[in-house]
């Protein structure tokens, strides 16, 4: 599944923070980096990074997406794994960068870059094979897997495996886990009514679990889901799984 | 229903019965399909075969169509080519008029919906009666199909009961499913017996043998194609298989993906009209091959993947947008994910450019498509085509949704996100002052209709990483 599975544990990794985390959820980014550091890795954050380019690509502005993608590719020059705390941005970099540069001189570079991309929870489980020790109080949580983390990155069970390692955490899965929350980047504002219906149904499904909190590996979905929960004054909260894991292990 | 998809959506979203009907139906179909493909390895293998068959067929479409024509002709089936739906209608009318037909009985055919055939025939004094139960129901209601496999999936039992009570003499209102089906059956038997011609669709036409494969569950397809003295089959030029060996994987994928059935109740293989000495079957069989924009789809290496489609409907059953708004909201014949990629290519982006945007790109359709059509990638391609014009556009109406303001925003975005200094400065300003942007600003207005907006964090991750002493190289 991952390039580094066979070659063992790397000493140094790159961290790609994502644009949403950079502006809105920097604590989630820091938590992800801290988790990696705690498992003995040197974590490098290249300052030239910004956005994976997905917003432009998904809107059909491929030249613009390519320019931004190239900026990322060039910002991560060493042969270290690139860990991304978002299945969606990781999916863009892993599955779409090669397509984006098909038939262009940068293609080989894009392919090589894409092969180094890992989603955070997958990296923790598959490459680092972490064993977490729970130091927190008993709590019930539920999980929201993003569409791209599940369907582009194949990240379905990895985050749940991490949660199951925590002895005081009860994971209650929701039956609609595979259904999109209605974020879809610009979809949420281009099709506001449909997006509202989708996130409404998603919140209802999450609430039905009785969990006090929803965790996710994607801040785009979280922004949508917790935004809707807060607006409707629901008691349930949500945050990035990295923040949760770090808090439990501290 | 007017305007574009976005404007039509609220009508469907605010209809609780419709929402419930679709939700329940789609949930059921997803469960049934999943039960058929529990063995992931077997599903992957079967799907790889299905995709390979259709990819091969599409890659040699022109050659296989010629082969199909030659073999059908040798079998006694008359083949007609229609460039447009108007031509297809004229061909069908001419055949029917030559036979003096006044009434036709129809099996399910989405191509006939593309042609708006019933309407056209009605205008020329020929009555077309739908014999598929779902089609029969929506014909009574005067509606269009809301799903390509289950045309009346938007209706529940009580709505159908009311419709039957109104249209079928002496039935009265009943929600008893057996009574309702029996009533439709009785009404339709009479139509079968008195029809002058039968019209059907085609699921797969086998080029090597000139065989038309038609799957169905009610026996109405078999009756429509065997009882009347004349049978006209309608198909889009992409509904091909090369050899009979291509059929088993497709036949296995289609019903499993569509309705969660291992196989349909009827699998018809039509290879000729009635031969001398045979006791049944139509005396004439005609095959109308409809292009209507498909050649243009074929001409583009990437877009031609669209033509692999076997019309199973799994993509719509799994689509979170379709299941919220139903088929009619799309306004075109093909709703859901397949419609979002096919319609703009057949009709042009100028009139159907809204369709590719009716998606979150969640990939649920891609995951279940039995012939592995990269629907999400094609949606992105079409979004791009809709805002970029060129001298020899691959898609009709390319560039018709170009908007200089939007283009300028993306250009600015590109500059900011590909220049680290510009990004650092922009992010710094936004993280400190962004929360002061009013809720009424464009995009934030739509966002905050049902959600609180996220707060800019004050300091970016870029800044925090530096403060925390991480290597920043
Ligand atoms: S696009 Fe795929 S899933 Fe959708 S109808 Fe066609 S074959 Fe079925």
Automatic annotation (TrEMBL), chain A:
Q: Name one GO cellular component term.
A: cytosol
Q: Which residues form the Cysteine-rich domain?
A: 13-94, 141-225
Q: Which InterPro entries match?
A: Cys_rich_dom
Classify the source by domain of life: Bacteria
The UniProt entry, under Pfam families, shows: CCG
Q: Which GO terms describe its molecular function?
A: oxidoreductase activity
Listed name of the protein: L-lactate dehydrogenase complex protein LldE
Give the species.
Insolitispirillum peregrinum
Its lineage reads: Bacteria, Pseudomonadati, Pseudomonadota, Alphaproteobacteria, Rhodospirillales
UniProtKB/TrEMBL annotation, chain B:
The molecular function GO annotations come to:
4 iron, 4 sulfur cluster binding; metal ion binding
Q: Which domain of life is it from?
A: Bacteria
Which Pfam families did the record assign?
A: Fer4_8, LUD_dom, LutB_C
**Keywords assigned by UniProt, alphabetized:** 4Fe-4S, Electron transport, Iron, Iron-sulfur, Metal-binding, Repeat, Transport
Keyword set includes Electron transport: yes
From its record, what is one biological process in GO terms?
A: lactate metabolic process
Q: Which InterPro entries match?
A: 4Fe4S_Fe-S-bd, 4Fe4S_Fe_S_CS, FTHF_cligase-like_sf, Helical_ferredxn, LUD_dom, LutB/LldF, LutB_C, NagB/RpiA_transferase-like
Q: Where are the transmembrane segments?
A: none
Statement: the UniProt record of this protein carries the keyword Metal-binding = yes
Domain 4Fe-4S ferredoxin-type stretches: 300-329
Gene3D superfamilies, sorted: Alpha-helical ferredoxin, NagB/RpiA/CoA transferase-like
Q: What is this protein called?
A: L-lactate dehydrogenase complex protein LldF
Q: Which organism is it from?
A: Insolitispirillum peregrinum
């Amino acid at each position: 599944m991952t390039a580094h599975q066979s070659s063992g544990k790397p000493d140094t990794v790159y961290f790609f923070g994502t644009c949403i985390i950079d502006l809105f959820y920097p604590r989630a980014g820091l938590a992800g980096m801290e988790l990696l550091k705690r498992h003995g890795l040197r974590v490098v954050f290249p300052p030239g990074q910004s956005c994976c380019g997905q917003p432009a690509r998904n809107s059909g502005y491929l030249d613009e997406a390519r320019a931004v993608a190239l900026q990322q590719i060039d910002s991560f020059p060493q042969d270290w794994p690139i860990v991304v705390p978002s299945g969606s941005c990781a999916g863009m970099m892993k599955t779409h960068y090669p397509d984006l540069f098909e038939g262009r001189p940068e293609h080989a570079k894009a392919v090589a870059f894409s092969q180094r991309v890992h989603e955070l929870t997958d990296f923790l489980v598959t490459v680092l094979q972490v064993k977490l020790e729970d130091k927190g109080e008993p709590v019930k949580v539920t999980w929201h897997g993003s569409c791209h983390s599940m369907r582009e990155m194949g990240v379905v069970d990895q985050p749940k495996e991490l949660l199951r390692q925590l002895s005081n955490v009860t994971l209650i899965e929701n039956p609609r886990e595979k259904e999109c929350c209605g974020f879809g980047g610009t979809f949420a504002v281009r099709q506001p009514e449909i997006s509202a219906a989708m996130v409404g149904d998603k919140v209802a499904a999450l609430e039905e679990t009785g969990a006090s909190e929803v965790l996710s590996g994607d801040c785009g979905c979280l922004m949508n889901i917790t935004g809707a929960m807060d607006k409707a004054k629901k008691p349930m909260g949500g945050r990035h799984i990295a923040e949760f894991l770090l808090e439990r292990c501290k | 229903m007017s305007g574009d998809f976005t404007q039509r959506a609220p009508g469907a979203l605010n209809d609780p019965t419709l929402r419930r009907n679709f939700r329940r139906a789609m949930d059921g179909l997803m469960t049934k399909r999943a039960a058929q493909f529990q063995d992931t390895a077997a599903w992957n293998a079967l799907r790889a075969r299905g995709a390979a068959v259709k990819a091969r067929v599409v890659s040699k479409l022109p050659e296989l169509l010629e082969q199909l024509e030659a073999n059908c002709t040798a079998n006694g089936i008359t083949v007609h080519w229609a460039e447009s739906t108007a031509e297809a209608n004229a061909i069908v009318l001419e055949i029917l008029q030559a036979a003096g037909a006044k009434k036709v009985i129809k099996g399910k055919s989405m191509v006939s919906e593309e042609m708006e055939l019933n309407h056209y025939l009605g205008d020329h004094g020929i009555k077309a009666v739908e014999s598929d139960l779902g089609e029969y129901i929506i014909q009574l209601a005067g509606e269009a199909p809301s799903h390509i496999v289950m045309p009346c999936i938007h209706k529940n039992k009580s709505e159908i009961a009311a419709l039957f009570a109104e249209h079928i003499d002496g039935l009265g209102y009943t929600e008893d499913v057996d009574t309702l089906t029996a009533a439709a059956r009785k009404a339709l038997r009479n139509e079968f017996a008195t029809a002058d011609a039968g019209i059907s669709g085609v699921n797969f036409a086998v080029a090597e043998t000139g065989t038309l494969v038609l799957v169905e569950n009610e026996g109405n397809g078999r009756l429509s194609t065997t009882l009347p003295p004349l049978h006209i089959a309608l198909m889009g030029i992409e509904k091909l298989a090369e050899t009979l060996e291509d059929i088993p994987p497709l036949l296995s994928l289609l019903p499993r993906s569509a309705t969660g059935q291992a196989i349909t109740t009827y699998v018809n293989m039509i290879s000729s009209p009635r031969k001398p000495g045979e006791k049944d079957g139509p005396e004439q069989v005609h095959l109308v091959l409809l292009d209507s924009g498909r050649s243009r789809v074929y001409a583009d290496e990437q877009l031609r993947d669209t033509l692999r489609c076997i019309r199973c409907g799994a993509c719509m059953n799994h689509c979170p947008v379709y299941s919220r708004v139903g088929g009619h909201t799309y306004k075109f014949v093909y709703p859901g994910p397949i419609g979002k990629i096919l319609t703009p290519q057949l009709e042009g982006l100028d009139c159907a450019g809204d369709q590719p945007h009716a998606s979150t790109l969640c990939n649920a359709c891609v995951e279940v498509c039995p012939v592995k059509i990269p629907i999400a990638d094609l949606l992105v391609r079409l979004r791009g085509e809709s805002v970029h014009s060129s001298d020899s556009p691959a898609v009709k109406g390319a560039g018709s949704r170009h908007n200089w303001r939007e283009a300028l925003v993306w250009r600015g975005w590109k500059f900011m996100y590909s220049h680290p200094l510009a990004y650092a400065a922009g992010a710094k300003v936004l993280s400190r002052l962004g929360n002061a942007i009013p809720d009424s600003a464009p995009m934030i207005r739509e966002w905050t209709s049902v959600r609180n907006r996220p707060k800019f964090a004050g300091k970016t991750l870029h800044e925090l990483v530096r403060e925390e002493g991480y290597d920043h190289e």
